[in-house]
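User: Could you go from structure to sequence for me? I need the amino acid at each position, not a summary. Structure tokens:
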């Protein structure tokens, strides 16, 4: 459960059970299941914990799955959840763009065989019921094994028949790496994904893109309808014959009937003896740069720092170190550091990437101001709000401030993973 990080969890634990054993065996990990079975009693809570959980946990939350309806999260944050039955009302009340421009499923999250099969069951209905898909639609398989298997079993063809585009098995649209149309115009628009995060500008660099997060099947249903005012549980759609039709509930298959398969999983074993391997990086490379150790603290009090920025409100790892086109520089710390805190809102002036350079007295970009302070010898300090550094565990968000001369980060609270990275 990678979203546990968003609430500050160090880890998320699920007691071992028969369903986990079935999953391990179904994904060709028989030996792991056998070992887990041998110590099963140690991989789950004691009966006393289940009988009296309030004695062992600070907070106990009970969810009745029979009453739980699908939810849609967003925009701009994964912790704003709205039941699908109330979503249209929320869209109108908040003035969110009603037209759904793109529906995107897959990525590292929600792209299992079962996820794909459930989404495909909805997509197949669009074909069978003569529904024209109103939104753009993309599919990002979570791995080459999943891609190969779902292609073999016909699911990718089902998506392509409704106009879906199958993308590479990669960290793609979720982190802004895709051919998004018209995002550079900055227009208000809505997209829906089955990804794990939807912070502002994350998916396409446009601060006005309202990103919503839902399950793959809900995302597929909304893409067919093309509007956020649609409720797939109750509403009817008009097909090409002028008939009113309703989407049936999705159906999924947990494991491929013919098993998982792959021709080339892309894995290359490292050399057994790597001592003779030489790594050569061209000095003029824009994408690769050999790292040099940071200078250790000299033990003296740090004084005279310039305030680089006081970030207002949510400041995630996406605000600190943007993704998208910047990811080409992941291997070059100096170049990727030129995006430092570009997405953070400056408390003074409430603009992004605009701060007062206290040396020159002029308005400067955050990276340029940081560089100026670094060269002065005094460095800088970053001030933030609650849960600073929320989001994925992007190490660049921790490395860049130090590389650019920041000596301290002062906030009300840190997101746990980012605090560890710092």
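Assistant: Here is the amino acid at each position, in order:
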């Amino acid at each position: 459960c990678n979203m546990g990080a968003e609430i500050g969890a160090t880890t998320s634990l699920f007691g071992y059970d028969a369903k986990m054993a079935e999953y391990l065996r179904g994904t060709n990990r028989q030996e792991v299941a056998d070992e887990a079975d041998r110590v099963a009693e140690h991989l789950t809570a004691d009966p006393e914990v289940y009988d009296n959980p309030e004695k062992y946990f600070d907070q106990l939350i009970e969810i009745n799955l029979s009453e739980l309806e699908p939810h849609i999260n967003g925009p701009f944050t994964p912790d704003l959840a709205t039941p699908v039955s109330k979503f249209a009302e929320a869209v109108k009340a908040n003035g969110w763009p009603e037209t759904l421009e793109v529906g995107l499923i897959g990525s590292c999250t929600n792209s299992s065989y079962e996820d794909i099969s459930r989404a495909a069951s909805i997509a197949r209905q669009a074909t069978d019921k003569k529904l024209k898909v109103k939104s753009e639609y993309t599919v990002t398989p979570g791995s080459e094994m999943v891609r190969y298997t779902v292609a073999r079993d016909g699911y990718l063809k089902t998506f392509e028949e409704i106009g879906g585009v199958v993308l590479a098995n990669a960290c793609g649209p979720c982190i802004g790496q895709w051919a998004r149309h018209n995002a550079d115009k900055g227009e208000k628009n809505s997209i829906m994904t089955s990804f794990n995060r939807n912070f502002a500008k994350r998916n396409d660099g446009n601060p006005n893109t309202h990103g919503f997060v839902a399950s793959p099947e809900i995302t597929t249903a909304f893409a067919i309808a093309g509007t956020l005012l649609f409720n797939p549980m109750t509403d009817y759609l008009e097909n090409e014959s002028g008939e009113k039709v309703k989407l049936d509930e999705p159906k999924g298959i947990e494991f491929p009937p013919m098993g998982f398969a792959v021709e080339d999983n892309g894995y290359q074993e490292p050399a057994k003896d790597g001592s003779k391997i030489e790594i050569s990086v061209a000095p003029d490379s824009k994408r690769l740069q050999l790292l040099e150790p940071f200078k250790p603290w000299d033990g003296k009090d740090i004084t005279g720092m310039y305030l680089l920025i006081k970030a207002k409100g949510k400041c995630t790892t996406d605000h600190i170190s943007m993704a998208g086109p910047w990811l080409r520089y992941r291997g070059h710390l100096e170049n990727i550091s030129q995006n430092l805190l570009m997405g953070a809102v400056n408390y003074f002036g409430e603009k992004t990437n605009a701060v007062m350079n206290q040396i020159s007295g002029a308005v400067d970009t955050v990276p340029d101001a940081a560089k100026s302070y670094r060269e002065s010898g005094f460095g800088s300090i970053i001030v933030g709000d609650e849960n600073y550094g929320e989001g994925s565990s992007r190490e660049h968000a921790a490395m860049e401030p130090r590389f650019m001369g920041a000596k301290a980060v002062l906030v009300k609270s840190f997101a746990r993973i980012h605090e560890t990275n710092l």
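One structural detail worth keeping in mind: Residues 2-55 form a domain with the Aconitase; Domain 2 fold (CATH 3.40.1060.10).
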